[in-house]
Every structure is written in structure tokens, then in C-alpha cells.
Known about the structure:
Layout: E1 3-7, E2 22-26, H1 29-33, E3 36-40, E4 50-53, E5 57-60, H2 64-74
Antiparallel strand pairs: 1-2, 1-5, 2-3, 3-4
Amino acid sequence: MSRFVICINNDNNRASLIVGKVYRQLVDDEAEARSMVRIIDEDKSETDGYLYPSSMFIPIDLPAEAKKALIDDYTK
């Protein structure tokens, strides 16, 4: 299952994250236990994503069609 978040802060990560952009969040229980999230960022070269502080993002709910479009975009 994919979750999505919107970036609200890209301090110290301006090359990797864009404020206001929706990102795919990968499930990572260990990261979440440490107040981190695993995100597929602008680079997209790391299929396992990168860890960022969860305070940099807000979870969002998207319609199924939007989720499919974003998942398809991330797999290209």
C-alpha cells in the first residue's frame, strides 16, 4: 500500500524536496518509530527512498485515480 505526503519544509534539502509537492511515502515502521519517513524524492534513483524527519511532511489522502497516476510516475 502506498501513502502520500506533501512537503511543507525543505530546509537543508532544497535539491531533493520541493515545498508543496506530493511525494510517495514508503512503509517503514522503524523509521516512523524514530519520527522519520521514507520518501521517494526528486532524485528517484533510490527505489528504497530516503529518510527525512516526519515534521517536513503532512500526510494526505488522494483519490484512487491520483494515487495510480503518481505511482505510475514513480515507476518510470
